[in-house]
Amino acid sequence: MIAVSRRDGRVRIALLADDVLREFWIWDPARPDGVGDLYTGRIEAVMPALAGRFVELGSLSGFLPDSAGGKTLSEGTFATFTVTRAPQGDKGPRLAVASAPPADRPGLLRRGPGPLLDLCARHPAEPLAIDDYALIAELRPALEGRMRFDAAAFDPVLEDEVAGLCEFSGPLPMGAVMHITPAPAATLIDIDSKGASGVSALALNTAILPEIARQIVLRNLSGGILIDFAGMKPAARAKLAPPLRAALATDPLQPELLGFSHLGFAELSRRRIRPPLHEVLTR
């Protein structure tokens, strides 16, 4: 089921499977993240050192990698572009060449679907429970037949779990705790095992892997992710690689385990498409 709740203009979106929260998104229609937007753009500059091109989109600029269709476009060329990654910090959106005909000047042609319609497209059999009649009316052209009104779409249990996602610490199985520290270059997940007892470090860290993977998805952590496991010597942490890969296998973005650093950190790479939850909450 997909539970949807509108509050103060923002739409909260929860994907639940057997009453377990699997994905969580916040959608602000007044401030969309831009993913999926279609633009007419003009190539501003060709940057061989960056293997791409800067593109004027009207009110903003984006970056078109050569691998996303940019190799044949020269400076001054007009084309249509789709936003494939939301802006990050002072960086503009990431782009790919689209097939639609361009307009006669740079600018927005069409907004992307937003995280709610994107989630519904990825889970076409899931019904929606929505606590706002006006939102149901707005979504009817795209989701007719899948929606029902439910004033308690976000019940108290779901509200409590969602509130916990706003914190940078969270409980893990066996009394462990995860602490999350985001930075521009990477996100560090530090595991504190002080509350755990009577179990080996390997057993503890193996047991918490599924919940770590779930929290990465719920918080949409992306880019470089470092995990500092608890109580194991750096050389021994490689034993966690197979169960960690298995835990990450259900992630819709298919993150990659790159290995373990000399300090023993597990190094993950997870595609950034939409902004992580902590960035959305601080807008």
Word description of this protein:
The protein has helices at 114-122, 133-143, 156-164, 201-219, 241-248, 277-281, and strands spanning 2-7, 10-17, 20-27, 38-47, 52-56, 61-65, 78-85, 94-97, 107-110, 128-130, 147-149, 169-171, 177-182, 186-192, 223-228, 256-260, 266-270. The chain has 283 residues and is an alpha+beta fold. It folds into three domains: 2-30 and 113-157, Nucleotidyltransferase, domain 5; 38-110, Nucleic acid-binding proteins (OB fold (Dihydrolipoamide Acetyltransferase, E2P)), CATH 2.40.50.140; 165-281. The strands form three sheets. Strands 4, 5, 6, 7, 8 and 9 form a six-stranded antiparallel beta sheet that branches.
Could you say how many structural domains there are in total? 3
Fraction of residues in helix: 10-25%
Major β-sheet profile: 6 strands, antiparallel
Q: What is the gyration radius calculated from CA atoms?
A: 21 Å
Helix and strand composition category: alpha+beta
Q: What's the oligomerization state?
A: single chain
The succession of helices and strands, N to C, reads EEEEEEEEEHEHEHEEEHEHEEH
Whole-number mean pLDDT: 94
Strand fraction: 25-35%
Low-confidence stretches: none
Shape: flat
Compute the number of strand runs. Answer: 17
Counting DSSP H or I runs of 4 or more residues, the number of helices is 6
First-residue to last-residue Cα separation: 28 Å
